[in-house]
Amino acid sequence: MPRSPEQNQVIREKRIQQILEAALTVFSEKGYHGTEIGVIAKRAGLGRSLIYYYFKDKQDVFIQLIHRTLRLWREEMNTILESGSSVTDRMGLILKKSCALCQDDPDLSRFHQMIARDLQLLFFGREEEVRRYFEENIRQPVRALMEEGVQTGVIQVAPELAERFFFSILFGAIHHECMLDKSQLNDWVKLSLYGLTGEKSVSVSRDDGRRMSYHE
């Protein structure tokens, strides 16, 4: 009996997932330039020709890996963003969840960090496509939250500066060479949101002599 379209789709998704998981494993061992289609096929337990049935070339394999994994991250973040919690709580949850995801899958975290650093070199001709995936799935959700924080008065600096600070502390915590320990997560989130003093309301002097308060 021939397979139904639904069964074919399930098989297709299973094969693609096998290939992408194998590509990530080989990348972790050999890096991008050392990863070859034949090696990916062998690691996935599939024929080389089957890789080319689903993907145009190695570049296409890795672009799909980027796209799918960033989309999954976005889905995780949407759950937090749409929770109805305060801006401060959502910022803390995004920081904690993002860091936890990277700790649970360090190979994937390292992959994204290394890829993001060399987009133009690795994906010449398609770098804007890949850059758009990072923008839509990582930058934009956080940017919207920062803008909401400014509009509601929770954040009292420009949203662009808030976004830059947010990603600076996040990327510093998940860097593959010095990733934050899980036991430090709660203290790190508190420090990120309230500073070294641990106070939820801090007043500082600006260059023009005015005072500004930062609070939950």
Structural commentary:
By secondary structure, this protein is mainly alpha-helical. The chain has 2 domains: 1-55, Homeodomain-like (Arc Repressor Mutant, subunit A, Orthogonal Bundle), CATH 1.10.10.60; 58-215, Tetracycline Repressor, domain 2 (Orthogonal Bundle), CATH 1.10.357.10. Helix content is 72%, strand content 5%. It has helices at 5-34, 37-44, 48-54, 58-81, 87-104, 106-117, 119-122, 127-152, 159-174, 185-194; strands at 201-205, 211-215. The chain has a two-stranded antiparallel sheet. A hairpin with a 5-residue loop joins strand 1 and strand 2.
- CATH architecture of the largest domain, please? Orthogonal Bundle
Class from helix and strand fractions: mainly alpha
Number of strands: 2
Q: What is the helix tally?
A: 10
CATH superfamily of the largest domain: Tetracycline Repressor, domain 2
Characterize the quaternary organization of these chains. single chain
Distance between the first and last residues' Cα: 63 Å
Taking Cα atoms only, what radius of gyration do you get, to the nearest Å? Answer: 21 Å
The largest sheet, given as strand count, sense and whether it forms a barrel, is:
2 strands, antiparallel
The proportion of residues in beta strands is under 5%
- State the order of secondary-structure elements, H for helix, E for strand: HHHHHHHHHHEE
- Mean pLDDT across residues: 89
Helical content stands at: over 70%
CATH class annotation of the largest domain: Mainly Alpha
* Strand ordering within the main sheet: 1-2
Global geometry: elongated
- What would the CATH topology of the largest domain be? Tetracycline Repressor, domain 2
Number of domains: 2
